[in-house]
Hints:
- This protein has helices at 91-97, 115-118, 143-146, 206-209, 223-240; strands at residues 2-6, 10-15, 18-31, 35-37, 41-42, 57-68, 73-76, 105-109, 135-139, 159-162, 172-176, 185-191, 194-198, 216-217, 243-245, 254-259, 264-268.
- The protein is mostly beta strands.
- The strands form 3 sheets. Strands 1-2-3-6-7-8-9-10 form an 8-stranded mixed sheet, covered by helices on one side.
- This is MBL fold metallo-hydrolase.
Amino acid sequence: MERISAGPHHTAYKIGDLTVTSLRDGYVDMPVRRLRQPGDKPFGDDLPPQVPLFDGALRLSVNAFAVGDGEDITLIDTGSSNAWHPTMGFLPQALSEAQIAVGRIRTIAFTHTHLDHVHGLIRPDGGDGFPQLSRLLVPQAELDMFRSVARLSRFHDRAQPLDPGQHLNANIEPVATPGHEIGHTCFRVTSGGETLLVWGDLVHVPALQFDRPEVAWEFDADQEQARATRLRILALAADNAWCVAGAHLDSPGIGRVSRTDIGFRFESF
Length: 269
């Protein structure tokens, strides 16, 4: 992958014939107790020293990713708009900075339906974030969850089920990665012999979970399944030299995974 542009809210790369743009929606600070050791045990004073804290809290980047082929742009996740913390909701600024017109985004696919991934469908002023949207793809197992979000009611009937193996186009294929949520889905992006795995919430705290992938997150729907999925995907990415893109990896959230003697290592691009 080659970096071709960057700014405070975006970083764009070439991958084969595609352009993949990391879009920074912002960040959220979370208490350390959200991290869970096996047995659902939270961390306290035993948090490893390499994990940075901001006023005693974990700082998670919130990223979305646009994949363009020169004609169409597919957006994977949409950030939170004004539905959560005021440190988030900067996706429109990121798109503008990256010179991506919202009218060019006609397909949106979600990794899962947690609020920091779906609420960007609606601008803070209540208008549609993507007025030319024609295809809205939600993991099949989470359709009912999506349709229970009152703020997104205008999109309930427009949502289409997304199943693993159902290619979005010639370059983007969904991969089932349940655990963090029942329908959590990654997207394998391929072009020119290169592969990028857009993996949603597989890792929340990169300073810890690459070294110790057994560490889970309080909001994982199934912590044991999330651990198993994380190990499987980290190994797949490392052993195949795939690039990865994570919603909560430090912005821009794109890099490569390799194995170490005890776990894995992430190198940002």
